[in-house]
Design goal:
Its cofactor is Mg(2+). With 126 residues, the protein is α+β, with helices and mostly antiparallel strands. The protein contains two helices and seven strands. Helix content is 20%, strand content 42%.
Length: 126
């Protein structure tokens, strides 16, 4: 059995995607572990509120895959496209070092390939 992490692709009107820098110095999609009794879309909304201080709504399921976070440690990733509710005024939480936006066609090198694939599927269907 693997832990489950719900991640969100939030693409802003500027065609930039929101990413967070984690402790491994990798950019990642915002989101996190689903809690007992919680559905995946509620988990996503909660995680965005906790990590960025913004409100989102899950729109479509984009991708699922098994991700090797560190050698021999796997997490099952479930990715949704998101819609921003209200203003984009992120507030950095203790969970990340930075929150930034990146053009979809110019993603950072230290973004795991699974996240990059989810971003491209969410924006372009590829």
């Amino acid at each position: 059995m693997f832990p489950v992490s719900i991640k969100g692709v939030l693409i802003l009107p500027s065609d930039e995607v929101v990413l967070a820098l984690n402790d491994r110095k990798e950019w990642e999609l915002p989101g996190g572990r689903i809690e007992i009794g919680e559905n995946s879309t509620d988990c996503l909304a909660r995680e965005f509120k906790e990590e960025l201080g913004i409100d989102v709504e899950a729109v479509n399921l984009v991708d699922t895959y098994l991700f090797e976070v560190i050698p021999d440690k796997y997490v099952f990733i479930v990715t949704y496209s998101c819609r921003l509710i209200g203003q984009f005024t992120p507030v950095l939480s203790h969970e990340h070092h930075k929150i930034e936006t990146f053009p979809i066609d110019d993603l950072p090198n230290n973004l795991p390939i699974g996240y990059a694939k989810s971003i491209h599927r969410a924006c372009c269907g590829r």
